[in-house]
Amino acid sequence: MTGCGLGGAVKSVIALAVGIASGMRLGDNTKAMLIARGLYDIHRLGMFFTASPRHADVLLIPRAL
């Protein structure tokens, strides 16, 4: 599995968890926490399996979307 495939699969699991939290009416803070922790976990998985540290630091730079 490539890095993009792994990231996409984990992203889908996180989206499912956020959808469940939204359906349970747990609030915006809970959804934000799930998304933030999910992004952190995607970064760590990418570093462990595929990404080089030199290129993965781009994910940590805050920027406007």
From TrEMBL:
Q: Which Gene3D superfamilies match?
A: N-(1-d-carboxylethyl)-l-norvaline Dehydrogenase, domain 2
Source superkingdom: Bacteria
Pfam families reported for this sequence: NAD_Gly3P_dh_C
Query: What SUPFAM superfamilies would the database entry show?
Result: 6-phosphogluconate dehydrogenase C-terminal domain-like (SSF48179)
Glycerol-3-phosphate dehydrogenase NAD-dependent C-terminal domain segment(s): 2-54
| One Gene Ontology term from the biological process aspect of the record | glycerol-3-phosphate metabolic process
Name of the featured protein: Glycerol-3-phosphate dehydrogenase (NAD(P)+)
From what organism does this protein derive?
Answer: Actinacidiphila rubida
